[in-house]
């Protein structure tokens, strides 16, 4: 996906959007199913304090569409969907709320399968699973895949290695200065991979406990005050790992890094950012290409989870990223456009002729 496209929801051509409200638990949620051409729509549930319902809807629509392309590019027989719960996850989580949400997921009949995302975790999925079977990312104790951020970060690291190869002819990040924006679940794991590979890592996060946890584990990591301070650093690689829209006109115009490769979804603030980066010689690894490891992890749960099998599949993100760069070079387009073309090609060639997926 080259960018997010908020606005009139009917321009998105999503198959289904469900608004969920349960007064007793305080649940307010939106489930968006973008496409089931390749199979049932799998995508996480984001629990976030949105300023209003319109912002939540725009995020759900954009994220759902991104999941369609992510699953297609990763070679999975799955479609794209996403859900958002409106509220503060630090204050409003409860068994009552998640079970009410689980009943709404169940009501869609298997066309949407949920999982973890920003603001939700595996124990939350266990609560949802008490009301629906259409949930992945459950705890290991309940036979699930556990924390999907583990392979999300691993996949981003593989994409970063492929980016380094394309930029510098060497897959190692040793000696490279990498700036990581956001060190929550995924960013924390990514920093560990980078440090193990010998990279010099500088980070920032708006959530101080995330910084404190990272400092306790990896005291050699440098911390700066905010995103502006991070972008002012002489970086080789910039890794946005927080919320979307991190790459706007100002960032794209002034970014010093040679590579952008991070875990955040919908990093490009609007169409055209990918061309600004490309014109300046900044190599952008498309977000939904490199952050597919978490989707691969929870999708494996549908077969009976094996971490080793899922990790082997996530290792393939290196080759997928390399293929995106090769296609971009051969077609003379930015990598974001190349990734879209590859994903769309698979959807068109493999997608079911009946158009939408229905339960058996």
From TrEMBL:
Gene3D superfamilies tied to this protein? Leucine Dehydrogenase, chain A, domain 1, NAD(P)-binding Rossmann-like Domain
Q: Where is the Glutamate/phenylalanine/leucine/valine/L-tryptophan dehydrogenase C-terminal domain?
A: 146-355
Short name of one Pfam family: ELFV_dehydrog_N
Q: Could you tell me which InterPro entries the record lists for this protein?
A: Aminoacid_DH-like_N_sf (IPR046346), D-isomer_DH_CS1 (IPR029752), Glu/Leu/Phe/Val/Trp_DH (IPR006095), Glu/Leu/Phe/Val/Trp_DH_C (IPR006096), Glu/Leu/Phe/Val/Trp_DH_dimer (IPR006097), Glu/Leu/Phe/Val_DH_AS (IPR033524), Glu/Phe/Leu/Val/Trp_DH_bac/arc (IPR016211), NAD(P)-bd_dom_sf (IPR036291)
PROSITE patterns xref list: D_2_HYDROXYACID_DH_1 (PS00065), GLFV_DEHYDROGENASE (PS00074)
Q: Please list every transmembrane segment annotated in the UniProt record, as residue ranges.
A: none
Please state which protein family the record places this protein in: Belongs to the Glu/Leu/Phe/Val dehydrogenases family.
Native species: Nocardioides dubius
Q: Does the keyword NAD apply?
A: yes
Q: Superkingdom, according to UniProt?
A: Bacteria
Record keywords: NAD, Oxidoreductase
Q: What is this protein called?
A: Glu/Leu/Phe/Val dehydrogenase dimerization domain-containing protein
């Amino acid at each position: 996906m080259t960018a997010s496209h908020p606005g009139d929801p009917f321009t998105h051509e999503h198959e289904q959007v469900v608004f969920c409200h349960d007064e007793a638990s305080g649940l307010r949620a939106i489930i968006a199913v973008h496409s089931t051409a390749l199979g049932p729509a799998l995508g996480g549930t984001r629990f976030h304090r949105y300023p209003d319902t319109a912002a939540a809807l725009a995020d759900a629509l954009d994220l759902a569409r991104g999941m369609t392309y992510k699953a297609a590019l990763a070679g999975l027989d799955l479609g794209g969907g996403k859900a958002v719960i409106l509220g503060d996850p630090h204050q409003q989580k409860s068994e009552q709320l998640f079970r009410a949400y689980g009943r709404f997921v169940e009501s869609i009949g298997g066309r949407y399968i949920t999982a973890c995302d920003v603001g939700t975790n595996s124990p939350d999925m266990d609560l949802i699973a008490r009301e629906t079977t259409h949930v992945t990312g459950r705890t290991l104790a309940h036979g699930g895949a556990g924390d999907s951020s583990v392979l999300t970060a691993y996949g981003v690291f593989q994409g970063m290695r492929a980016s380094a190869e394309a930029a510098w002819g060497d897959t190692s990040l040793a000696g490279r200065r990498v700036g990581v924006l956001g060190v929550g679940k995924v960013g924390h794991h990514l920093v560990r991979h980078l440090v193990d590979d010998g990279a010099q890592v500088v980070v920032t996060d708006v959530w101080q406990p995330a910084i404190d946890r990272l400092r306790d584990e990896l005291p050699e990591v440098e911390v700066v005050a905010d995103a502006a301070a991070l972008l002012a650093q002489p970086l080789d690689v910039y890794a946005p790992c927080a919320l979307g829209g991190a790459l706007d006109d100002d960032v794209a115009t002034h970014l010093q890094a040679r590579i952008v490769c991070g875990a955040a979804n919908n990093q490009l603030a609007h169409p055209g950012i990918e061309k600004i980066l490309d014109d300046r010689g900044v190599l952008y690894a498309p977000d939904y290409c490199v952050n597919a490891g978490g989707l691969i992890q929870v999708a494996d749960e549908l077969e009976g989870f094996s971490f080793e099998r899922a990790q082997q599949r996530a290792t393939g993100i290196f080759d997928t990223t390399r293929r995106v760069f090769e296609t971009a070079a051969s077609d003379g387009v930015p990598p974001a456009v190349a990734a879209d073309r590859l994903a769309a090609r698979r959807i068109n060639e493999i997608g079911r002729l009946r158009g939408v997926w229905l339960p058996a």
